[in-house]
Design brief:
Low-confidence stretches: 3-85
Helix content: 25-40%
Distance between the termini: 64 Å
CATH topology of one domain: Glucose Oxidase, domain 1
CATH class of one domain: Alpha Beta
Radius of gyration: 22 Å
CATH superfamily of one domain: Ribonuclease E inhibitor RraA/RraA-like
Mean pLDDT: 79
CATH architecture of one domain: 3-Layer(bba) Sandwich
Order of helices and strands: HHEEEEHEHHEEHEEHEEHEEEEEEEH
């Protein structure tokens, strides 16, 4: 189980792990222009950058050193207490949720139908799959958090804002070095009313997750555990394996994968679904009746 640290020292990663996390976090920030990561703090949409000493120059776009082969050599981790001693910061943004009727209109809809209604896209990366094969269906409102690589403080903090019917969406920057959650945190999420969990990272504790019963979608499983150091955000837009997700979007998942229906397009998608369902049902009947080639291939 992914337990909670009771001693302050046990919650702190080693200097070696901090080094690894800084590399991963910096890469994440370069590739995903999100409003939080190591090297910056967010305060009401104002970014304050924390510069880190290094032999190389700093990149003004990200507030940390630009990539180079020796960029981390000589970083004063032992003397610079900023990252170790500052209180973790979690920024929260109010979530505007869609109407319950809009969510209900999508419930039980195959993800393929939703992708068709969205114009052919909308699914997350194919590698994001159910951790438990028999628990592979959910529909709910996205509540996003950006935990970053090798950390889950933002995910734990997000529990405070979970509402019944929410799907927790945790961004890690595609980090697969450790799990972002296990059965304990997802058990608490279930107790708060969450109906699903989606991450671009890994999870752990499969036997416990099966008992918790919350559908969980991830890129893999590993017993390695994260730190709980922060910083992080809750409620802000995130990127999950290259796909944008905003709190208030509707998440629909099944055995095929996870689809994100943007809140602004809900009415459009709902309006298109009846025709899509009818067309699919018609083709199903035709195939059962012996159809060999689709009509558009038939020669006049």
């Amino acid at each position: 189980m992914l337990g909670f640290c009771t001693a302050a020292v046990s919650c702190r990663p080693t200097l070696e792990r901090l080094h690894e996390r800084l590399i991963d976090a910096t890469y994440y920030q370069v590739c995903h222009d999100t409003p939080r990561r190591f090297g910056c703090a967010i305060n009401d949409s104002t970014t304050t950058r924390m510069q880190l000493s290094s032999p190389s120059g700093t990149d003004p776009q990200i507030g940390v050193d630009a990539p180079s082969a020796d960029r981390y050599h000589g970083l004063p981790f032992a003397e610079d207490k900023t990252m170790l001693d500052e209180a973790p910061s979690i920024q929260h943004q109010k979530v505007v949720r869609p109407a319950a009727a809009q969510v209900d209109a999508l419930r039980g809809t195959p993800t393929g139908f939703l992708v068709d209604a969205l114009g052919g896209s909308g699914a997350l990366d194919y590698r994001i799959k159910p951790a438990i094969a028999e628990q592979a269906a959910c529909c709910g409102v996205a509540l996003t958090c950006d935990a970053g690589p090798a950390d889950n403080l933002a995910l734990v903090a997000a529990l405070e804002w979970v509402q019944p019917g929410d799907v927790l969406v945790a961004a890690t920057g595609n980090y697969a070095g450790c799990a972002v959650t296990g059965d304990l945190v997802l058990g608490m999420a279930r107790n708060c009313g969450a109906v699903g969990f989606v991450t671009d990272g890994c999870v752990r504790d499969l036997p416990g997750l099966r008992m918790v019963g919350v559908p969980c979608y991830c890129i893999g499983v590993t017993p390695n555990s994260p730190a709980r150091s922060g910083p992080g955000t809750v409620g802000f837009p995130v990127t999950i394996a290259g796909h944008p997700v905003a709190s208030g979007d509707v998440i629909v998942a099944d055995q095929d994968g996870v689809v994100v229906v943007p809140q602004a397009r809900l009415d459009e998608v709902i309006a298109r679904l009846p025709a899509i369902r009818e067309a699919e049902a018609g083709m199903d009947r035709a195939v059962r009746d012996g159809l060999r080639v689709p009509a558009f291939l038939r020669k006049g």
